[in-house]
UniProtKB/TrEMBL annotation:
Pfam families: BMT5-like (PF10354). InterPro entries: BMT5-like, SAM-dependent_MTases_sf. It comes from the Eukaryota. This is Uncharacterized protein At4g26485-like. One of its GO terms (molecular function) is rRNA (uridine-N3-)-methyltransferase activity. One of its GO terms (biological process) is rRNA base methylation.
Amino acid sequence: MAGFVDGITYCGSVSEKTIMHYKSSHTILLVGEGDFSFSACLAKAFGSAANMVATSLDSNEVLLRKYSRVAANLEALGLLGGTVLHEVDATAMSRHCSLCYKEFDRIIFNFPHAGFSFPESDAVQIKLHQDLVRGFLREARKLVSDKGEIHITHKISHPYCEWEIEKLAKKEGLLLKETAEFSRWDYPNYENKRGGGGNSDHAFPVGAVGACATFKFVRY
């Protein structure tokens, strides 16, 4: 069975809906959410957020100051039964009291970024990004289910390709299962936010089709 709900393609039975790589039956952990528009998109596509935990590094108060649509997105998640956690460090999340005893079928980190300390092409800045990604992967490996997947969506042009995400994952005992082309237009109302500085609420350019990809990792 296939059809459309609010412009979103879904397939499967009435009790299971799918948007791109994600199913309503999956237990999903979202890490490093900005204005929570990605998690809200999934929840609306599924008609439920009961199997979802969406997290942010920022506190609720900081989020409300930074993002114009975050309150509406958080409300949507709450109404659909989702769990929202703030002040969750992606590099230490397996020790969080609300996560440490859980397992997830999909763990998602879209456009991880360690901040704007140096130019993106600077070797020191690249190392900061790599430390963040490797720390996330190390923690995600502890929380992903045996047959689950860890997804990182990322730009693949220079200098972002210098992060060498696949090599970082291999060092953490993870294998690249697939690299899938990413387009934010596949996720209605998702807006990728800068997240830092005076332009936190602005979307950053993700380039033409093929400029970004979702890396899917599994345990060895």
